[in-house]
Design brief:
It contains 5 helices and 8 strands; from the N terminus they run αββββαβαβαββα. By secondary structure, the chain is α/β, with parallel strands linked by helices.
Length: about 170
C-alpha cells in the first residue's frame, strides 16, 4: 500500500478543526450586534389571538426563535423547534412572512404547534437586531439573553444552551 492511499487522520482532523473555527467565526460575525440583556418587557399578541409576555416565564429558560415562511433554512429547523417546544418554552417570531394567512397555513400544513408572534413589519427583528433568519435567542431564568445564534442550529445545540440557561446560579 502506498502512502498516497493511506487514510490520513491528521489531515482530516485539521480540516475538521478549520471548519469548526470558521463556523464559530461566522456565527460570531453574524451575531456581533445581536441584542443582549434583559427581555423582561418582550410581549405581544400571538397568532392564535392570545397575549404573550416574558413576565409569565420568569424563572424558566426560553427560546425566542425568529423565522420566515419563505426561508429554506428555517424549513429545515422547524422539526427541531417543534420538538424543543415540547420540553421548553418556545416563542417563535415569524418575521417578514406576508401576514396572518401564510403563517397560519404554514403552521397548519407542517403540523406545528409552538406559539407564533407575527412580525410582518420586522419591528421585533429590529429590536433584537436580527440580520437574517433563522435566528435564535436563549433567555435564562432572569429573562436575560445569554446566547444568540444566527443561521442553522442543531436541536442538540439549542437544547444544551437551554439546559445551561435553566441551571441555577
Amino acid at each position: 500500500m502506498t502512502s498516497k492511499s493511506k487514510f490520513n487522520w491528521k489531515s482530516w482532523a485539521s480540516y475538521l478543526a478549520l471548519i469548526g473555527c470558521m463556523s464559530i467565526a461566522v456565527n460570531w460575525w453574524q451575531t456581533r450586534d445581536a441584542a443582549m440583556g434583559s427581555v423582561a418587557g418582550f410581549h405581544g399578541r400571538l397568532l392564535d389571538g392570545s397575549e404573550f409576555s416574558m413576565a409569565d416565564y420568569q424563572g424558566k429558560p426560553v427560546l425566542i426563535h425568529f423565522w420566515a415562511t419563505w426561508c429554506p433554512v428555517c424549513d429545515l429547523e422547524k422539526g427541531s423547534i417543534q420538538s424543543i417546544s415540547e420540553d421548553y418554552t418556545v416563542v417563535s417570531v415569524a418575521s417578514w412572512s406576508e401576514g396572518v394567512e401564510p403563517v397560519t397555513r404554514y403552521m397548519r400544513d407542517n403540523e406545528l404547534t409552538f406559539p407564533v408572534l407575527l412580525d410582518d413589519s420586522g419591528d421585533w427583528a429590529q429590536t433584537f437586531r436580527v440580520r437574517g433568519v433563522p435566528a435564535s435567542f436563549i433567555v435564562d431564568q432572569q429573562s436575560m439573553i445569554v446566547s444568540a445564534v444566527s443561521g442553522y442550529t442543531t436541536e442538540l445545540g439549542l437544547r444544551v444552551r437551554l439546559w445551561f440557561a435553566g441551571r441555577e446560579g
